[in-house]
Please model this.
Amino acid sequence: MEKISVIVPVYNSSKYLRKCIESILNQTYKNLEIILVNDGSMDESGIICDEYAAKDDRIIAIHQQNAGASVARNRGLDICTGNYIGFVDGDDWIAENMYEFLYTALLNYNADISICGYYIEDEKNGVYGARNDNGEVTVYDSREAIREVIKDEKIYSNFWDKLYRREMFRELRFRKGIILEDIATMYKIFMHAKKIVACNVPQYYYYQRKDSLLHIRNEALNWDQFWVYRERVLVLEKDYPEFRELLVTRLVSFGIAAYNCLLLKGDLSSDEKSQKEEILETVWKYGKEIRDKKYGGKGLRCRLKFVTQKGYDRVYPIAKRVWLSCGRGRR
Model:
């Protein structure tokens, strides 16, 4: 039985962490190396990590100053010894046969990455939804998987619903200092894979915390979205021309959203002013391509027409606040 390394970044997760760790310890697949990386938590998460490391010799507890989930995952990748690698977030939990399920699928299809479905859970509703739960099995080559992760419909950029051969991370690490490290990294992992198998049976329980960065809209998140989608275009445009329309339309859409967010903020720092100009320049550049080639739908082309009009910077914040005051929208 080959070893699977499970890397768990932990930050202020004491309320959920025991359930998370117990769900990994109780896996039907027993040959596990569990690496808990405490990312400078200010609650009792670090104590809980040490407690479990003392109980089970499969667990390694690492403590670091707060540097973000990407750095925590990279610490785990640097020391892990398994033939295969998985990730679980410290506030989530997994079904007892998840790694046996993913390992079996990976071997049966001779794949480099296997993917399962997942449940969505929160404090108010409990488990209230699922993604990829129709029981279907689909095998993708590298290009097909990249297309699906760009579309964000059948394959998602989550790290934690997958099992990877360790070779996938031989030259790759997660980018630090950004919020959307999953979107910035997953397509690059697929570029290194020859075969990916997706088995649409939920095995992972994704817990949505109210205080999660991904559920708090702010300028940093909007800038991250713009930045990672622009990088996708730059990385993929040469060797994957068939994805051009998908890449460009998503970049411009997120660029307009990030630009609007800065307009609503009003008083901008010098860095934010530079970001605003950089975003607008990119929207202008790729917007011309969208108009000329009629990429995307009419809605996007209409938004492009407005954002490039003289006076838009002054009119948009006023119109948006009027719209919100009338109770017509929240975005």
